[in-house]
């Protein structure tokens, strides 16, 4: 006798005993069932007969009836690779615009089946497909891969020693009451992120020359270092006819090579852009809430104090410095004559 048969006979005995005693509660106590179970057993017996008393055995799970069709899943994957940083809800909305109906939960399930559930996995999948199939990437995909994948990213702007390449840019600090707009000219050494900053009330070519002539070049002369090149964007304060533009004339007199960033690619000058963000977050936004300035000269004094801290006391988390200060990195080069750099 099988277990199923025994279980069926026991349930039949429960029903027969309840009929003989005419007392459901007493029959359930004797047989070890609850009243709820009794009424369920009786309902199954009345509906399906003896077959309804058999226990249902767990079998192999059947395919989910609500799983999205394969052709829609392909479209979800394609849209995901086109927009790898979009969330599931946004992918769903984007597909809906293309007349493809799929919920955010459905998109998420497709990601789980195709190992695309995290942003990093989606970016890696995009890069892998590009390497295998060689399809053309759009501008947004290139930007995302450059930002998130070190292996795909274009070669960094490189410098083998202090002064070999300086990065320069202008930055609008804000408006000073009674004075007007205040601009900052910033210069950063690509080798060690050593920085120079000076404030002005205009953004003219003469100010771009002044920060080099007054701050940067004298410092490198003191260290016995030669400034070989300066990288800037294509703004009018930096670019013009070489025989007339003040900035171009100055670099020519100092025998400094002028390099320009690629048009519409500000990340090329990322060193100084990141320098701007550091000054904005750690200096200007803090001082602007704790002190009222009457003049640019007063602002410059506090900026000079912060630059001392930035260059000589503040640890830098960039991949070149790895926790050192810019001044320590430069000092290390001067003391070793570049031997540590060559060994690396």
Short synopsis of the structure:
The protein has helices at 3-21, 24-31, 35-48, 70-82, 88-97, 104-113, 119-133, 139-148, 205-223, 246-253, 270-290, 296-312, 326-336, 339-343, and strands spanning 166-176, 180-189, 195-200, 229-232, 257-260. With 344 residues, it is of the alpha/beta class.
Number of separate structural domains: 3
**What fraction, in percent, of the residue positions are helical?**
40-55%
Radius of gyration: 36 Å
Profile the largest sheet: 5 strands, mixed
Q: What is the residue-averaged pLDDT?
A: 83
- CATH C-level category of the largest domain: Alpha Beta
Strand neighbour order, sheet with most strands: 3-2-1-4-5
What name does CATH use for the topology of the largest domain?
Nucleotidyltransferase, domain 5
CATH superfamily of the largest domain: Ribonuclease H-like superfamily/Ribonuclease H
Strand content: 5-15%
Helical segment count: 14
Q: Secondary-structure element sequence?
A: HHHHHHHHEEEHEHEHHHH
**SS-derived structural category:** alpha/beta
Extract low-pLDDT stretches: 151-155, 340-344
Task: Explain how this protein is built.
- By secondary structure, the protein is α/β, with parallel strands linked by helices.
- It has three domains: 3-53; 70-148; 166-343, Nucleotidyltransferase, domain 5, CATH 3.30.420.10.
- The chain is built from 14 helices and five strands.
- The protein has helices at residues 3-21, 24-31, 35-48, 70-82, 88-97, 104-113, 119-133, 139-148, 205-223, 246-253, 270-290, 296-312, 326-336, 339-343; strands at residues 166-176, 180-189, 195-200, 229-232, 257-260.
- A five-stranded mixed β-sheet has the order 3-2-1-4-5, sandwiched between helices.
- The longest helix is centred in the C-terminal third of the chain and has 21 residues, at 270-290.
- Residues 151-155 and 340-344 have low confidence and may be disordered.
């Amino acid at each position: 006798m099988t277990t199923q048969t025994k279980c069926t006979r026991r349930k039949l005995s429960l029903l027969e005993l309840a009929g003989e005693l005419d007392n459901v509660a007493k029959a359930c106590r004797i047989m070890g069932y609850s009243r709820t179970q009794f009424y369920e057993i009786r309902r199954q017996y009345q509906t399906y007969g003896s077959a309804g008393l058999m226990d249902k055995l767990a079998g192999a799970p059947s395919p989910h009836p609500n799983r999205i069709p394969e052709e829609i899943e392909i479209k979800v994957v394609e849209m995901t690779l086109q927009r790898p940083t979009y969330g599931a809800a946004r992918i769903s909305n984007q597909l809906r615009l293309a007349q493809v109906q799929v919920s955010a939960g459905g998109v998420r399930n497709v990601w789980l089946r195709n190992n695309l559930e995290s942003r990093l996995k989606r970016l890696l999948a995009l890069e892998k497909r590009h390497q295998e199939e060689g399809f053309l990437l759009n501008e947004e995909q290139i930007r995302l891969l450059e930002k998130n994948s070190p292996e795909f990213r274009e070669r960094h702007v490189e410098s083998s020693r202090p002064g070999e390449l300086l990065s320069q840019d202008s930055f609008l600090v804000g408006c000073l009451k009674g004075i007007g707009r205040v601009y900052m000219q910033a210069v950063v050494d690509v080798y060690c992120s050593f920085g120079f900053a000076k404030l002005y009330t205009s953004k003219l070519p003469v100010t771009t020359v002044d920060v080099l002539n007054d701050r940067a070049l004298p410092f490198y002369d003191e260290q016995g270092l030669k400034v070989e090149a300066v990288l800037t964007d294509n703004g009018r304060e930096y670019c013009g006819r070489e025989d007339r533009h003040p900035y171009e004339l100055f670099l020519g007199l100092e025998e400094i090579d002028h390099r320009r960033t690629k048009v519409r690619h500000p990340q090329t000058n990322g060193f100084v852009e990141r320098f701007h963000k550091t000054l904005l977050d750690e200096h200007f936004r803090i001082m602007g809430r704790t002190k009222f300035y009457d003049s640019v000269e007063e602002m410059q004094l506090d900026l000079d104090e912060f630059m001392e801290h930035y260059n000589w006391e503040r640890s830098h988390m960039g991949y070149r410095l790895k926790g050192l200060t810019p001044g320590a990195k430069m000092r290390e080069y001067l003391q070793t004559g570049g031997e540590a750099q060559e060994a690396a």
